[in-house]
């Protein structure tokens, strides 16, 4: 709430062309509060944005691409992490120190406790530029070490399909899919994942998709840029060895 108040005050002061926020849990809440304060339209989970304010969204588990514009106010959008490629541009920004103030109305909720989850050396799943995910085909929890090894070699995060999570192979917080997390990395590697629509909804905006599956008819191959039909327990160690050679 305080952040939304500060941004609303800033918008009124500088009259920006648009307001972009990250499509995270906090970013979407700030955007919603900001839209109410400004009496402005808002678009969330945007994966593309044109200069005229036309936003691209993926809907209905990825089966539909939507083009939308804010019809009241300025373009106020939350952007899905990793969905847009930043392009370097020459600029001379003027940095201005702002004095902000919030009212008691912005302090009606109080954080009473913060618990920081222990993080390993891997990047956060939704922000990683490389994600290696394992599915039912990985077989069991012990075999997920193969997925972790590949992710670590590529400097990426580990993901899992719903089938793998439901089977107890990997913790739920790493689930990629419609009922899990949405990722949009530069490289997505799917190991032993059939590619049901539920999973595809969470990763289909990835820039490059590589799939390894022993079933040549697996739906994941319809989406993959590169596919290997084979036993992942033979393919992945060979790939890992080649990666090590190139390091």
A few lines on this structure:
With 247 residues, the protein is an alpha/beta fold. The protein has helices at residues 2-14, 25-38, 144-153, 162-166, 197-200, 220-223, 232-245, and strands at 19-22, 43-49, 55-59, 64-68, 76-79, 130-134, 157-160, 187-191, 208-213, 226-229.
Structure notes:
The chain has 247 residues and is of the alpha/beta class. The chain has two domains: 2-85 and 93-107, Rossmann fold; 125-245, 3-Layer(aba) Sandwich (Rossmann fold). Helices cover 26% and strands 20% of the residues. The chain has seven helices and ten strands. The strands form two sheets. Strands 1-5-2-3-4 form a five-stranded mixed β-sheet, covered by helices on one side. Strand 8, helix 5 and strand 9 (208-213) form a beta-alpha-beta unit. The protein is elongated and about 60 Å long. It starts with a helix and ends with a helix. The relative contact order is 0.11. The mean pLDDT is 92.
């Amino acid at each position: 709430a305080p952040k939304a108040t500060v941004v609303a005050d800033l918008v009124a002061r500088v009259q920006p062309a648009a307001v972009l926020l990250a499509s995270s849990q906090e970013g979407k809440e700030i955007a919603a509060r900001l839209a109410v304060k400004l009496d402005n339209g808002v678009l969330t989970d945007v994966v593309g944005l044109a200069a005229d304010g036309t936003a691209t969204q993926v809907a209905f588990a990825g089966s539909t691409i939507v083009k939308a514009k804010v019809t009241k106010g300025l373009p106020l959008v939350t952007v899905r992490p990793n969905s847009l490629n930043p392009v370097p541009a020459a600029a001379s920004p003027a940095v201005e120190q702002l004095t902000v103030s919030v009212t008691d109305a912005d302090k009606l909720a109080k954080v009473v406790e913060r618990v920081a989850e222990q993080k390993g050396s891997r990047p956060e799943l939704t922000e990683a530029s490389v994600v290696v995910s394992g599915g039912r085909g990985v077989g069991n929890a012990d075999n997920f070490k193969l997925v972790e090894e590949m992710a670590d070699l590529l400097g990426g995060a580990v993901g899992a399909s719903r089938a793998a999570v439901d089977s107890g192979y990997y913790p739920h917080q790493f689930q990629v899919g419609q009922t899990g997390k949405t990722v949009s990395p530069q490289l997505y590697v799917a190991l032993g994942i059939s590619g049901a629509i539920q999973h595809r909804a969470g990763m289909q905006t990835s820039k490059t998709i590589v799939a390894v599956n022993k079933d040549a008819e697996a739906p994941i191959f319809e989406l993959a840029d590169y596919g290997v039909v084979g036993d992942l327990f033979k393919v992945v160690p060979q790939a890992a060895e080649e990666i090590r050679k190139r390091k």
